[in-house]
Amino acid sequence: MPILSSPVQYLKGIGPKRAQDLGRTGINLLEDLLYYFPRRYEDRSQFKPIGSVDIGSTVTVKGEVISKKGRPAYLRRGIDIFEISVADGTGRIFAVWFNQPFLHKYFNVGDQVILYGKADLYRDKIQMSSPDFEIIEDKEAGLDVGRIVPIYRLPQGFSQRVLRKLIKSVLESQITRLQELLPYDVRARHSLLNIAQSLLNIHFPQNEKMRLRAYQRLAFEEFFLYQIPLILRKLKRRDKAGIVFDVKESALESFFGKLPFALTDSQKKCLQEIVSDMRSPRPMQRLLQGDVGCGKTVVALLAALGAVTCGWQAAFMVPTEILAQQHVEKICQLLTGLQIAEHREQKKPKIGVLTSSLDDEEKKATLAGIKNGSVDIVIGTHALLEEGVVFHKLGLIVIDEQHKFGVSQRALLPRKGVNPDCLIMTATPIPRTLSLTLYGDLDLSTITQMPAGRGKIMTQALAIEERQKAYDFVREEVKKGRQAYLIYPLVEESEKLELRAAKSMYKEFKDEIFKDLKVGLVYGKMKRDEQEKTMKKFRDGKVDVLVATTVLEVGIDVANATVMVIEHAERFGLSQLHQMRGRIGRGVHESHCLLVADPKSEDAQARIKAFVATTDGFKIAEEDLKIRGPGEFFGERQHGLADLKIADPLAQMHLLKAAREDAHKLIERDPKLADPKNAELKRQLYRRFPEFERFVEVG
Ligand code: ADP
Ligand code: MG
To answer: How many domains are contained in the chain?
Structure first.
């Protein structure tokens, strides 16, 4: 008899080939089958009297087989056709199947059957073509009809019917052995079903009410399991010996004085939160979030300077070369006239840049500076993670646009120091409860204000035929001395997708449409020096119109750019559109974002509509989450939410909160999960989070 942790291959009817097909869907053990939840359900529990079945409707009927026959094969050469008729006293309906010769023997006249399918008119008869069916034997409940039926996402080579049978058989053989992983008091507090009832009812619900209760319980379980590693990680950090930065208030104030603007209250508050973390011996793990353009970089830079005044190095990791370059310029500009400490030989902080396209010599020099400590602040891409990068005394890490990095990448940088402080920045603000789930191990600071004196951004969606209007508008603005971005989803034209692409459009703009204007082009794969040259020209106003791909999504900061035209806007995600729009409206002038779009799908229409309606990043993020669901929203590279199979953090925030509180209590009681009562919980945690063992056992 197989047990829960047996490979599926032990099941009857599952050979190596089928086991492989299941494996590709992530189903390897019996247990995985039980946790392979239906994608949706169909209520086939209500039977329609056959006499009142409407043509074209999809219905469940129940009746007696009164005839069966194979239709003559010559009608459809070589195709086996099998037909039965079923009556229930109100009428008669036919059902046909093609090329399923085993059915001839399966049905017998006199059988009670249930059929589920679409009723069509065929030669004056009402007929279902290949309906789902079930012969009612005794009182046993059907799997495929006559009930609320689960519909699964199918592994290759499986039909709904076969998968249902498989899951049902595993449920039946394992149900008595299922171990409860939620502590009893937790279940009692929230009136949650036990595990056996939950798994039974999530797959084969007795009724809608039980299905909902099963769903609640399993969603709670998922939240609960997911919170534990986060909470443990956070607690573990409390015990670690981090760096105590003696950041002087006077030093910070002298930096403020050197800035060309006053910080917003919100920026000041966040900076205080960060600095107070830095002063404490506990290693900082703080998320700094705020809408694009709210001024996160400045705050992070001030924190970095704080670290430098205490004799430590700081590292900024950013996702693109353009952004690295721009941060350097920005920082150097802010630092003009700034002195770090009287006693240092080198009074100005020294900035180093590290990206993968440095030539060997530049790279060698920078690496040497990082190693001997002459470089105070390093700004770089993921090149910072390379083995050859050794810091003299790394104290503070800033990770910008964290969603662009994978979890493992984010975890690598801190290892280049000894429990350094980490500040993680994101411009995709999310509702607070949700950030608890995703970043439950982080502390949170939010910049809620925009700097004063920013021009408004107007957004408008144009149909494809109206494209010329957008170009005319660009021309007008350039005439007034402003600059414009023209964004395309692709660099090169592709044969498959008939989309306009940056390169060819650049040519068209340069040679025809904007022949009299100065047009530039940037895209991600471009050589670094060319990219830089063009960006510099744009910043200096020597390029009027910049044609670009989504490289512009992060960081570019040119206050004089007031128009952005996004072509094929339906192809971009909502948050991505918002990030790009954040490139304009940075100066005092009113700005305009024009979408040229042909949204065909409902989702695309919803995105465009939401985008035009608001410029508030929090609202945009919430809409985006709703449209895409958390899994896709955070992307596969993000841990956590993408792995949630059943729980929906947006719709079930109350459950999430409750699960988090209960997880907290449990960890306080049993931090090592050593209590035998928590054995199953621990087993499940190890199973789902292979890296989890480290937290508990080692730390
Ligand atoms: P984010 O990284 O949050 O998108 P940045 O830090 O790049 O935003 O800031 C956007 C622009 O606003 C930069 O040019 C920055 O110098 C400027 N800025 C930041 N804070 C302020 C402020 N308090 N007042 C005026 N301008 C500011
Ligand atoms: Mg930024």
So the answer is: 3
